[in-house]
Structures are given as structure tokens and as C-alpha cells.
Write a structure and sequence with these properties.
By secondary structure, the protein is mainly alpha-helical. The chain has helices at 2-65, 71-99, 105-126. It is rod-shaped. The termini are close together.
Length: 127
């Protein structure tokens, strides 16, 4: 029951912390948006450039080996190369996803610290 009576005293502190959490969340969201936009732009440029480069390399290999005895081996080699590149890219992507910072990490960290302080304030007023 004393907790209810102490709420008016703790309300300004709670409102201040809520505003701080909203500010931290805004910062985290802005950072995540900037990182995502930069990553999406870079990925789009890399994908388009890589696709055209690989297409031109494949056309050159086929053109150079078309009348030769190694054209099937050349095509199989290109297929093996693309398979290996795809697997390496998938592994790299998994590592990037694993190592990224958790979403709203700063808000969670501050909430853990403030929850302890808030519990101490509310229990101190009960005594």
C-alpha cells in the first residue's frame, strides 16, 4: 500500500526516465536506420556490379573455349566457382548477423540499471 502512496513522489523520476528511454530508443532507431540504408545501398551496388562482371567473365570464357575441347570443363569450372562464392557469401552473412549489436541495446542496458535504482527508491520509501 505504501508503494501507491510513494508513486506521486516517484512520478517525476519515472517520467524523466521514460523520456530518457524514448530518447535512447530514438537514437538506436536512427543508428539502425542509417546502418541499414548504408548496407542496402552498398549491397545493391555490389550485386549489380558483380552480376554484370560475372556475366561478362562467363561470356568471355564461353567465347574463348567454344570451339575447343575444354568448353564443358570451363562451364563446369564456372559453376563450381559460383557455388563456392555463394557458400562463402552465405557464411560471411551469417557471421555479420551473429556479430551485430542487439536492437535497442542501450535502452535495455539503461533499464537494467534504472530498475535496480527504482526498486531501491520504492523500498526505501516503504520503510
Amino acid at each position: 500500500m505504501r508503494v501507491l502512496w510513494s508513486l506521486p513522489k516517484a512520478a517525476p523520476l519515472l517520467v524523466e526516465h521514460l523520456a530518457a528511454y524514448l530518447e535512447l530508443a530514438g537514437r538506436d532507431l536512427a543508428r539502425a536506420r542509417r546502418e541499414f540504408a548504408a548496407l542496402a545501398l552498398a549491397a545493391a551496388i555490389v550485386l549489380v556490379g558483380a552480376a554484370f562482371t560475372l556475366l561478362m567473365i562467363c561470356l568471355a570464357v564461353v567465347a574463348l573455349t567454344w570451339d575447343g575441347p575444354h568448353r564443358v570443363a570451363a562451364i563446369a569450372g564456372m559453376g563450381a566457382f559460383f557455388l563456392a562464392a555463394t557458400l562463402l557469401a552465405a557464411l560471411r552473412g551469417a557471421n555479420v548477423l551473429r556479430d551485430r549489436a542487439p536492437f535497442l541495446d542501450a535502452v535495455r542496458r539503461e533499464w537494467r540499471e534504472d530498475r535496480v535504482i527504482l526498486e531501491q527508491v520504492l523500498t526505501a520509501e516503504d520503510e
